[in-house]
Amino acid sequence: MKTLSLILALCSGWASAGAFPYPVKKKTLPNGLDILVIEMPEFKDVLSYNTMVLAGSGKEEQRGATGLAHLFEHILFTHRFKGKDGGYNDAINRMGADNNAWTWFDITYYHPLTFTSNLAGLALLESSRFKALSINEKIFQTETGAVLGEYRKVASNPSMKMEERVYDLLYPNHPYGHTTMGYYDDVIDMPKHYEAAKKFYDTYYRPNGVVVVVAGDVKAEEVFKTLGPLYSDWKAQPIPPVKEKGPEPSGDRRERVAWDSDIAPQAWVAYRMPAFKLGSPEAGAAELLDELLISPAAPLQKKLRYEKQTASGIGFDEGTNGFESAEPRAIIVSAELFKEKLAAKGDAYFDDAIKDIEDGLDALKSFSKSPGAADLLKVIQSKYRYDFLSGLSSPRNVANVMAQYYRFNRDPQALDQLLDSVQKLKPEDIDRLAQNYFRPENRVVLTLAFEPSAKKGK
Q1: From start to end of 260-366, where are the E strands?
Q2: Are residues 217 and 257 in the same domain?
Q3: In Å, how far from its chain's centre is CA 14?
């Protein structure tokens, strides 16, 4: 029923200022904690309780102590609720909750899902672990081992090695220069950094750096009444900003990454992008890069996969939202190539694929001058709007999307502002984004291929 109502809304031409179909109610506590409530009564008895901490790996400025944001994603599940080992998990399991979390460069996001009747109990649990986490050094040591195991698992994917190198080249003077997992040496040494880890929690897990989003079959007034007393004694403190500790790198940087097993070669082309300013033409244009570059109908996708059959796949390494960040981050176009063609053509094969990717991005610099540009943009805008709204399919999903964009300006109308910025775009806005950022001096190019000499012990 909800999907149908969204389609009808689209077809009836709702004004973009009111496109988001749910009311968003907000309360800010004196300590700076924002609480958002999205009432979705059609999802009967469903409660999505989401806590967004505005600190991810991009806050880890100290080399030697990276990976702490991701570590705390793990540690918060070990909270000794009421002083009992395993107390948090025991309590939340009794609620029948589906409970998980994830870490990214700017945020750490926790999202238990349960029944509306559990609101009071879940609010008690969540407020307890965020404002007064109870762990001990034994728990800390156990979780550092779990993180090391996770690192070793993902390190078996060549994309991890590519990410580590591309970030290092793009951000040599900023914490964006390492992955959310942290540097390998730091992950190895994590057990030694109990005090640094506690300091990270104490610095960034503060109410003025946290947003709670509750969505589902709830009433806003009841949520505010329940959560207010539980979080009101959480002490705020200034959260230090992160700045680049040196100039942005400049120059067209290109490297080859060696891999120690015979896998498909890869070619990555990355450009530094601007900080995401919600509602701006620049941000609106960036939202459409997925359709313009890597969708099945995009010229670059058709050229590489179907016309020249250079690549078996092409996409954004970080997904379509990878460059939506509080600080300038990057767009990374990644292509998986064919082993047989690399063996036959050598480096010329890489050169050809990279040139086609670069040309595909450069073509957007004159998008407005291409035949039918205005009509094509209208089609893409309509598709973006439809896909965005029809994707709001559950309380958890709605809360997640709201949190992702709300963080940029703390405005409950954030999603309407996003959709409005896309709807108002002109073809020249696409030109301007590409001209400003798809420049050689802003670029890093990596290739990856099997090299027998890279095998361990050789």
Answers
A1: 266-272, 311-316, 330-337
A2: no
A3: 29
Whether 188 and 281 map to the same domain: the answer is no
Other Cβ atoms within 10 Å of 275 Cβ, number: 14
Q: Which phi-psi region, left, alpha or beta, contains residue 317 (left: φ > 0; alpha: ψ -120 to 50)?
A: alpha
In the predicted model, residues of the chain with pLDDT beneath 70 are: 1-17, 454-458
- Structural domain contains residue 357: yes
Distance (Å, whole) CA 438 – CA 363: 10
User: Domain of 320?
Assistant: 253-454
Parallel, antiparallel, or unpaired for β 108-110 and 266-272? unpaired
Residue 3 domain flag = no
The verdict on 320 and 185 lying in the same domain is no
Q: b/e string for 209-235 if b means 16 or more Cβ within 10 A? A: bbbbbbbbbbebeebbebbeebbeebe
Asked if residues 423 and 382 have their Cβ atoms less than 8 Å apart, the reply is: no
pTM, 2 dp: 0.92
The answer to whether residue 5 is domain-embedded is no
Copy the structure tokens of residue 107. Answer: 């945020």
The answer on 342 and 288 residing in a single domain is yes
For residues 403 and 440, state if they share a domain: yes
State how far the Cα of 308 lies from the Cα of 337, in Å rounded to an integer.
12
Dump pLDDT digits (tens) for 355-399. Answer: 999 999 999 999 999 999 999 999 999 999 999 999 999 999 999
Give the Å distances, CA to CA, from 24 to 146, 219, 290, 369.
38, 11, 28, 40
Domain total in the chain: 2
The closest of 77, 391, 424 to 281, measured between CA atoms, is 424
Do residues 223 and 257 both lie within one domain?
Answer: no
Domain boundary among 200, 231, 262: 231
Q: CA–CA distance from 148 to each of 15, 234, 455 (Å)?
A: 49, 32, 22
- Residue-wise pLDDT for 205-255, tens only, equals 999 999 999 999 999 999 999 999 999 999 999 999 988 888 888 999 999
CATH number at residue 189: 3.30.830.10
Q: Kindly provide the b/e burial profile for residues 158-192, where b requires at least 16 CB atoms within 10 angstroms of the residue's own CB.
A: bebbbbbbbbbbbbeebbbbbbbbbbbebbebbbe
Give the separation between CA 284 and CA 278, rounded to whole angstroms: 8
Q: What does the DSSP 8-state code read for residue 306?
A: I
CA 28 distance to own-chain centroid: 25
